[in-house]
Each structure stands twice: as structure tokens, then as C-alpha cells.
Design goal:
Helix content of chain B: over 70%
Number of helices of chain A: 5
Radius of gyration of chain A: 20 Å
Order of helices and strands of chain A: HEEEEEEHEEEEEHEEEHEEHEEEE
Strand order of the largest sheet of chain A: 2-3-4-16-15-17-13-14
Structural class of chain A: alpha+beta
Distance between the termini of chain A: 69 Å
Radius of gyration of chain B: 17 Å
Shape of chain A: globular
Number of strands of chain B: 0
Structural class of chain B: mainly alpha
Number of strands of chain A: 20
Helix content of chain A: 10-25%
Distance between the termini of chain B: 29 Å
Order of helices and strands of chain B: HHHHH
Largest interface: A-B, 24 and 22 residues
Oligomer: heterodimer
Largest sheet of chain B: none
Number of helices of chain B: 5
Strand content of chain A: 25-35%
Chain lengths: 300, 124
């Protein structure tokens, strides 16, 4: 084989390799481990659930647009406007944190391009509420616990947040603990995406954290803990003239103004999706729902 | 020589423009890998030019070097694309390995050519 021919073969092989890598990275679903989700726990329903009679903070400027009530969960959906953006707030009171479930696309954790829309995953599970979550399989590292099961033990340098069986939520640096210890301490869900938005009632996120995506106005999703058994999930629309989106500091202010003692950033951008009572309530920035790797949902 | 310089500059400019356009469509998210990818043809091209003088008859060495630059550039650009997307793809590392292998191959033939040339000078 002459060198000239070798060069031709090399560049053809090179082109095929580039196309293959792009297809593997963006198109072809592959990999992942199958995970079985538990069913809702059996709970006594003799005690009524209470939703606060008076609301404060950003709730005062919010409009109630939908609600759902059952023996074990109360969900109130609000819409408000801050930072030139439309914000959807699901204010949730549950009898037990185990009702806040994690759902995985195609019931697979890990792999590449294993995605489904939030609405499809929600409908498959008869969920009354769902929101895109941390897309934990997007990264190669980070502690992941879903529905009380360890799915990944590899520690990252990020901050994670845990929802515990006693109802509290706590954010922590992953290097200070490990998956087994978290499970032992009663962690029900551990999310690894970040950053932490609110800690002990104070905003802690910064646009100067070195992550470009946190500095830019974007659609966002977030999770917050207001008090025992009361949580708030937020989706902010963005990338449009009507709703420009928020940066990470503005998102923290929103969560703080809703009364969150702890709040954590979920995946955003085109993935930011909130589903309630059979429909997608926000306006995904691409004009249609993007497939995501996982979600948080409540059957109600 | 002039043709080579023009090509390297045009490629560098092309990569700079591509990066700007890609970041424009990425809603402000950037990647240092993509931003520095223009250095591959710029610095790699400078090395090519200095090699060109010494291995003029052995153009295959320059071709090998260009092949390795291609691999490095692909590594930088693809890593940048995945970084902007917020993900990673393990197979991208193949381009880096390819680049290093071809660089070593280039170095081997380059040094061999230089030594051969030096021996001929001494014997004459």
C-alpha cells in the first residue's frame, strides 16, 4: 500500500469515526442498567393533611392555577412572574416523603441517550405531578440514590442534596460522605447536579462559580424544602421574548422568597418541564418537550 | 511555503469563526476546548513549517504530522461540543490517542531523516 493510499484510508476512517462518536453521543441510545421502581407505601389516612392557611413571600404575588388533594398529598400549582420570567410553583404537602418518587427514562439508569419526555414518564406511572430532575446519568460521577436504592457510589466534587425519610432536606459536599452512609442515615433521594441555591434560608449560589451555564439567563427547574413534609418544585420558562429565564442567583432568590430553607438546582435549559394533572404546564423552550433521563413525580 | 502559511491561517480562522457561531447558538455556554482549538493549526502549522525545511524530500512526514493535527483538532472540537451540551462521550478520547500515536510516528521518521542527513554530511 502506498502512502498516498494510506492517507486516503486514514481520512475516510477518520470521517467515519467522527460521525460514529457524534451518533453515540447524541443519537444512539445505548447502555444503562434496568431499575425497578417501588410502588407507593401503604399509609394510614386517619389524620388529615394541612395546607397553610396564610402564605407569605412570593406566594403573595402568585396566582393559584390548579390543585390536587388526596388523603396523602396536597399539591397547589401557582404561577407568578419575577425577573421578566414566567414561574410555575408546585407547593406540595405529603404525608410521607416516600410519596416523592424518582422515575427513570425507560427504567434505565446510566447509558447514553436513554431519554423520555416527562409527560410520557408521568403518564406511564399515573403521576399527578412530575418535574424533570437532576439527569444523574448525564454525568459519569456523583452519588445517586433513587427511591432508597443506591444507583451510583462514585463521588464527585459537586454538592448534592438529599431528601430524607424523616422529611428533611440537606445539601452537602459529596466528598464529605458516601452513598452507604447516606442510605444508613435515611436518605430516600439523593440528587447530584447542583449547585445548591439556598442553605439554612440564605442564598448561596453565585454566577461566578466557574460554570458558564449558571451565569446565563436560562429556563430552570429547582427543588426546595420549606418545612417538614412541605416541599416546593419550581420551573422557570426562558429563551423567549415573553419569558427570558433566570441565572442561578435569581433562581436562588426565587426559592428563598418562596420560603425554602434548602433549595437545589435541577437540570434546566430545554429540559425544564413541569407536568400536572395530565398536561405540561410550562412552555418548554424548544417549543416541544425534550427527552430527559429522569424525573421526580408524585402519584397522588 | 507561502501556500502552507495561508492554509494554516485560514484553518485557524475557520475554527475561531466556527466557535463563535456555535457558542452563539448555545445560549451563552462556552467551552475552553472549543475556544482553544484554533491553536492546533496555528501552532501545529508553525511546527510543520520548521520541519518542512529539513525534510523537503520526505513529504510523507509532513502528511503524518497533518494527520495527527487533524486528530488533535477533532478531540478539542468534539470535547467542546459535548461540554457545551453538558455531557461527555468516552469514545472522544480515541482521537487523542490517535493524535499521540501519529505524533510519535512523525517524530520517529523525522529524527531518522535528520540523523540520516547528518550521517551523509559527515561521510562526505
Amino acid at each position: 500500500m502506498t502512502f498516498h493510499m494510506f492517507k486516503k484510508v486514514y481520512y475516510i476512517f477518520f470521517f467515519i469515526l467522527c460521525v460514529t462518536v457524534l451518533l453515540l453521543g447524541f443519537v444512539i441510545p445505548h447502555g444503562g442498567i434496568y431499575v425497578i421502581e417501588p410502588s407507593d407505601p401503604e399509609l394510614p389516612s386517619n389524620e388529615p393533611l394541612f395546607y397553610p392557611e396564610t402564605l407569605s413571600g412570593a406566594f403573595l404575588n402568585a396566582t393559584l392555577i390548579d390543585e390536587h388533594m388526596s388523603d396523602h398529598v396536597i399539591i397547589k400549582l401557582y404561577q407568578l412572574r419575577m425577573f421578566e420570567s414566567d414561574i410555575y410553583v408546585a407547593d406540595i404537602v405529603v404525608r410521607d416523603p416516600r410519596l416523592i418518587m424518582s422515575g427513570l427514562a425507560k427504567n434505565l439508569f446510566g447509558g447514553q441517550n436513554q431519554v423520555e419526555t416527562v409527560s410520557k414518564m408521568a403518564m406511564d406511572r399515573n403521576a399527578v405531578f412530575a418535574i424533570n430532575a437532576d439527569y444523574a446519568s448525564h454525568y459519569d460521577t456523583g452519588i445517586v440514590i433513587k427511591n432508597g436504592e443506591i444507583l451510583r457510589r462514585t463521588i464527585s466534587y459537586r454538592y448534592a442534596t438529599a431528601l430524607y425519610l424523616d422529611g428533611r432536606v440537606e445539601s452537602f459536599k459529596e466528598t464529605q460522605t458516601n452513598a452507604q452512609r447516606l442510605l444508613f442515615d435515611g436518605a430516600w433521594q439523593v440528587f447530584s447536579f447542583g449547585p445548591v441555591l439556598v442553605k439554612n434560608g440564605e442564598t448561596v449560589s453565585s454566577v461566578d462559580d466557574g460554570y458558564q451555564r449558571n451565569r446565563v439567563d436560562n429556563p430552570r427547574s429547582a427543588f426546595g424544602w420549606i418545612e417538614d413534609m412541605r416541599y416546593v418544585f419550581v420551573t422557570v420558562d426562558g429563551r423567549s421574548s415573553i419569558s427570558i429565564g433566570v441565572d442561578i442567583e435569581e433562581l436562588a432568590i426565587i426559592m428563598q422568597s418562596l420560603g425554602a430553607k434548602e433549595a437545589y438546582n435541577f437540570d434546566g435549559g430545554g429540559s425544564a418541564t413541569m407536568y400536572f394533572n395530565g398536561r405540561v404546564v410550562n412552555k418548554p423552550s424548544q417549543g416541544y418537550e425534550r427527552g430527559v433521563g429522569d424525573m421526580v413525580y408524585i402519584r397522588g | 511555503m507561502r501556500k502552507h502559511i495561508l492554509w494554516y491561517l485560514l484553518l485557524s480562522l475557520f475554527l475561531i469563526l466556527s466557535t463563535i457561531i456555535y457558542e452563539w447558538f448555545s445560549f451563552g455556554v462556552t467551552s475552553i476546548y472549543m475556544r482553544l482549538s484554533f491553536l492546533i493549526p496555528l501552532l501545529g502549522g508553525s511546527i510543520s513549517l520548521s520541519m518542512l525545511k529539513k525534510v523537503q524530500s520526505k513529504t510523507f512526514i509532513i502528511s503524518l504530522w497533518h494527520m495527527s493535527l487533524c486528530a488533535y483538532a477533532a478531540f478539542m472540537i468534539l470535547t467542546g461540543i459535548f461540554e457545551i451540551y453538558g455531557s461527555s462521550e468516552p469514545t472522544v478520547i480515541i482521537f487523542l490517542y490517535l493524535g499521540v500515536f501519529l505524533t510519535l510516528l512523525t517524530l520517529y521518521f523525522y529524527i531518522k531523516t535528520i540523523l540520516k542527513g547528518a550521517k551523509s554530511c559527515i561521510s562526505s
